Amino acid sequence: MISILKYQYKLFIFLFCISILPLTLVYLYLPGEFDKSYYFFLTLLVGLRFSFFKGGLYLEKVRSNMRDVLTKEMGRIPSTNEIVKRVDDVVKSRDYAFGISAVLVILITALFGKL
């Protein structure tokens, strides 16, 4: 799992700071006020995924500079298969970061007994 998130660790930290950390703070300091707040945070994650992190735009952005990144990393010109494989890994890791964040929201909600 760590190798998957190495491409998207900044995104995972961002998602942690806007969903998991605030949800934990709400459950710790406002225990009776917002029982169903996990709906808000799950909706926030889904909304971010489909509004700001669209597939086509992100794929083109990653593809445009992947050859240079792999050339620096490998010390040679990468093959087309290597470029395609790395682009797929980066795109999948973004989706995994969103999925792991959603699972953590549900786990934290279950730990606090609000599910």
Describe this protein with a few key phrases.
single chain, 115 residues, mainly alpha, 80% helix
Task: Characterise this structure.
With 115 residues, the protein is mainly alpha-helical. The protein has one domain. The chain contains 5 helices and no strands. The longest helix is centred in the C-terminal third of the chain and has 32 residues, at 80-111. The radius of gyration is 18 Å and the shape is elongated. 16% of the residues are buried.
How would you summarize what this structure contains?
With 115 residues, the chain is mainly alpha-helical.
Q: List the domain count as a whole number.
A: 1
- Portion of residues within helices: over 70%
Q: Radius of gyration over alpha carbons?
A: 18 Å
Profile the largest sheet. Answer: none
Label the overall shape. Answer: elongated
Topology:
Elements: H1 2-5, H2 9-29, H3 37-51, H4 55-74, H5 80-111
Helix pairs in contact: 2-3, 2-5, 3-5, 4-5
